[in-house]
Amino acid sequence: MQVLPIVSMPINADSDTLQDKSSSAKDKKATKSTSNSAIKIKVDDIRALQPFIYQGGQGMRICVLDHAEQMTVAAANALLKTLEEPQAQVHLFLISDTPAQLLPTIKSRVQQLALQTIEPAVAIDYVTKALGHTINREAVSKMAIEQLIQLANGAPLAAVALAQAPWYSKRALWLTTWQALRSGKRSSVAASDYWQKQLSIKEFIQLSERMLLDIKRICLGLNELQTDINLSEALASYQPDALNLEVFGDSLQQTKVALQQNVQEKFAYDKLMQELACL
Q1: What is the pLDDT of residues 221-251, one digit of tens each?
Q2: Cα 179 to Cα 214: distance, rounded to the nearest angstrom
Q3: If you ran DSSP here, which 8-state letter would residue 65 be given?
Q4: What is the dihedral of CA 216, 221, 222, 224, to 10 degrees?
Q5: Tens-place pLDDT, residues 192-221
């Protein structure tokens, strides 16, 4: 089995060129040790699959893309061309813990198989009881519970963790900060100093990723998943283009890597606020 740094490469069912077991085990171990949050599937990774998919000859060919939600927009568009022109005896498996993050154009061209699906009524009942009918000491409505479950892709435990995350109650504040930065009403330095007192840089990155996902949905003409913060209204007069969204998303990923290299949180915060002002 051949392994790319990010994308799990195809397995040719008829190939006699499998690597020896020790090498394969080593590749698998290295792949598993990679943090999901640091993974990014780029367009070059998808292009690397093309020769295998379109090669001649007979025999089944299988391509597995793990963490498919980590594809960049360019990578997803490159994969889309392959999905639109399926080859005989070629099977592509997209694995994702958060399928809501996949582009709708990708999801519409694949068969979706949900594992261990939980009935919505059961999920709502569990989350409501687990939270004690409150989020951050405030009464929570059924609509808010349903939103949590939707954001968590139907997983009750993930929905509870989401509600209890320090950043979840600060989504509207993130939106206000972004608008203030973009309009020049607040400097990136002032915003950085403020947010350093609110959340850790890792929590701010999680918040930003959540907001970025819904911004992308609205820019694609889809409804936002977070209906409690009026995001679509805020984007009515201005919508960032796809390039700026990808640049900011890449900056979030690069910041995660930098933090693993002991970069100071203040420096990371300052840089992210400058990037957010340009979004």
Answers
A1: 888 899 999 888 888 888 898 899 999 999 9
A2: 15
A3: E
A4: 60
A5: 999 999 999 999 999 999 999 999 999 888
Distance of CA 276 to the CA centre of its chain: 18
pLDDT at 138 over 70: yes
- 70-85 pLDDT, tens digit each: 898 889 988 988 888 8
For the chain, give every domain's residue range: 11-107, 120-164, 169-277
Q: Which residues contact 186 (CB under 8 A, 6 or more apart)?
A: 177, 180
Q: Residue 11: phi, psi to the nearest 5?
A: -115, 120
Confidence class of residue 27 from pLDDT cuts 50, 70 and 90? Answer: very low
Locus of tokens 């850790």 = 200
Helix ranges (DSSP H) in 2-89: 21-33, 43-47, 50-53, 73-84
Mean pLDDT of 101-126: 85
Radius of gyration of the chain (CA): 21
CATH level 2 (architecture), domain 11-107: 3-Layer(aba) Sandwich (3.40)
pLDDT digits (tens, 9 = 90+) for 173-184: 999 999 999 999
Read off the amino acid at residue 57.
G
The answer to whether residues 45 and 4 touch, using CB atoms and an 8 Å cutoff, is yes
| The token pair that represents 230 in the structure block | 């009026």
Instruction: Give one DSSP letter per residue of 69-126, joined into a string.
Output: GGB-HHHHHHHHHHHHSPPTTEEEEE--S-GGGS-HHHHTTS----SS---HHHHHHH
Determine the residue type at 122.
Answer: V
Q: Which residues pair with 64 in a beta bridge?
A: 93
